[in-house]
Amino acid sequence: MKRTLGALPFLLLGVAADLRATEDSGPAAVEFARDVRPILERHCFGCHGPDRQRSGLRLDVKSEAFKEGAYGPAIVPGKASESPIVMFSSGEDEQMLMPPRGERLSEAEIGTLAAWIDQGASWPEGVDGVTQEDPIDHWSFGPPTRPAPPASVDRSWPRNAIDRFILDRLEGEGLRPSPPADRASWLRRVAFDLTGLPPTPERVADFVADPRPDAHGRVVDELLASPRYGERWAQHWLDVVRYADTHGFEVNTERPNAWPYRDYVIRAFNADTPYDRFVREQIVGDALGRDEATGFLVTASVLLPGQIGKDEPSIRLARQDAIDEIVNNTTLTFLGLSVGCARCHDHKFDPVSQVDYYSMQAFFAGVEYGDRPVRTPQADEARRREAGLRSRLVDIERRLAGLEPTAGSGIERPPVDPRKNADRFGPVAARRVRFTVLGTNRLEPCIDELEVYDVDGRNVALAASGTAIWSSGDTVVAGRHELRFAIDGRYGNSSSWMSDEEGRGWIELEFPGEYSIDRVVWGRDREGEFDDRLAVAYRIEVAPDSGGWRAVADSSDRREYSGGGDPPVSPFPAGLDPEEARVASRLIEERDCLERELADARARQVAFAGVFRAPDSIHRLHRGDPEQPREEVAPAVPHALGTLALPRGSAERERREALAGWIASPENPLTARVMVNRIWQGHFGIGLMGTPSDFGHNGARPSHPELIDWLASEFIRSGWSVKHMHRLIVLSATYRQSSRIDPGARAKDSDARLLWRFPPRRLEAEAIRDAMLAVSGRLNPEMGGPGFDFFRHRGGLQGFPPVERFDAKGRRRMIYAHRVRRERDAVFGAFDCPDAGQSTARRIESTTPIQALNLFNSRFTLDEAGAFADRLRAEAGEDASAQVRRAYQLALGRDPDPDESDDASAVVRRHGLDALGRALFNSNEFLFLP
């Protein structure tokens, strides 16, 4: 850049001479229309004119030319040497030379530009030749209205106001709605839409035979009251906010306490939490008794502290990236507006300036990513349960203490177990404990949790109890291997300490006081699966307040292990008589069960959510660079959308409360419109606005803008009830149409955007998997809590080998799967599951060969087809025709026609019931809404 500016003083001198400057009169005035505009037209408009605006710069319109661009304002009045338009035109740097191709500006032209800018860059009004549209003048930025539903020629078809808007548009295009769908098809459609599960054959039969005029409404009320409804509609929301159970980026470590936010969303939909309250809870739930709801603020990827460089620029950049994710999540989700472009320059399409963007950042300037205690009835119950479990566990440990041999007792103890080892010794007073690894047969020593118990059975080693920790040296993998994880109360190799030297290393603990201890428990990976053995030689030493180190246990009295695989470890200590062995075995089994329950109780008390502190000072950043801060900004909403602004010194919570109130206000032009459009999309596959998270200038044009406004006003009028909107939509004549094709209508509107028929669509991956489990009879209805695994590893650098077969936990609804960011499930990921890398406002719908192959040959399909066959035999007996009839009822919600029955019966007789199940799972009728 210095070379670019080097010639500028000489050029300006030349300009002064050309303009015949004199000491008395000064340089002659440069006129924009006569002298400057022709230069811009000749050299600049090709890249920065009406057709293209590279780097966000437009030079044919005054209001745009002075805006902040990718390199700051192109024109800085009175300062030619600081104006990029002059700097880049006059430079010798080929990378920045403008224009990059074609004829360069002459020295005289550059001088004219420079002189014009130094003279104040006067640009008269009315000389542009074009009128720039006011970006604020956009249909979605105006206040919501409640347009009257139009009258139509056909007064018999509409069932509610929705139908009158739809029919008015159809009649205007010369189209007619389709006849109603049959009752069984409508029921299957609405059951999947509202709960993500097929109706049972018995429910289909009852509904088809129900003569009551309000039969449809009764079905809808029943489905909305089902707990399955919240599970279905929470998935739509989690797609938008990009929920996952890992942190993302290269290491992608586990985020073990993310699931309380997922459960909160399910509960909120089931309870029909008013949407304005739902918005507030997610932004300021810490003030409303909904701590876990603030998980919304931190659902996106984030770099953990150990993954960030220790230099200040790296720390500032990581912080900027983290808060950027919060701003984007908030504006995309609630406002349907993309503001992220304004991080570097004024938005190219929407009225969002850089100042607007950083003013939005200021609302979240005190938000951090982390775990926080949860205050819910479920968490309180978990705390009470934990206390009871601890009491029972202490009693068991005392009873075992009288049976297990102590270290140095002369009884040979079992070999080292990579999962868990207990070293008992006589009670000893200790302030410090050192665990030293003297040697391993390979790799660096690794400890997932080091526990030290006092004579009352309490683990006094926990960091939460005030214990400090040191080590001989650490191998750090952020979020996975860190020293602090050795005493954090979490088990598993994904939360462990690793030494920095092969075969050796030590950990030292210092308690907040002196305790009488009698047991140390440790392991490499208490939750792991091992294909080989890791031999460890070790020594345990203690030191009281007043003395030096004393050895209390070591590996010298443990048996050696040789050979591959896990050794046959006795479930009770060696040296006991048969009766004592039976007692020990029972106690150990009970202890292991209690420890699993205890871990679950602990997990239910915290959530990965917003953690709050004093706000940072937020500055506008030149080109989005944290190393180029400009003026400080205060919390404020985009000027085009409202007037809310707070002083720079506002308290942290006050900022979020103010923002939440503004977003959830009935006067906000976007909030209600965006949400009703998302609800509509959930029922028709595409919203009235085809870009559900972009209601700005770059979004699609709405197919029925008046209907969006009417729905938004009705949403607010109903008390922001989401379930009320469902009832309106699914009971409308529009939704109750058949999906049959009318060739004439298809020629005019091939994708049925005008809704002359119900547009059929394929089920999402979650609904397909859940439906297979429901049909097979093996769907586990258990709700909530930590997720089940699709992969054998929950995160990190080990890769993600899939789980092939699932136990009962793994046959819960797919929303309860532990979601690994940027990794799709091996079977159902092929059905366009988002990977939580970006917000997915609307899923794509692809068709690929791997989808059919997965649904026909995967281990999951084979298992569920087998279970389906067992169910058919139990419910229909051994007659093939009866089995086929029951299979069609369960899988497709109808009886087979005679030809189908004959063909399917032949398949059953020749290939077995399993083959029929696999064929039905692959059928379009199973996979698509009717």
UniProtKB/TrEMBL annotation:
Pfam families: PSCyt1, PSCyt2, PSD1. GO terms for molecular function: electron transfer activity; heme binding; metal ion binding. PROSITE patterns: CYTC, FA58C_3. Keywords: Heme, Iron, Metal-binding. Residues 21-121 form the Cytochrome c domain. This is Planctomycete cytochrome C. Signal peptide: none annotated. Residues 549-577 are annotated as: Disordered. Residues 455-588 form the F5/8 type C domain.
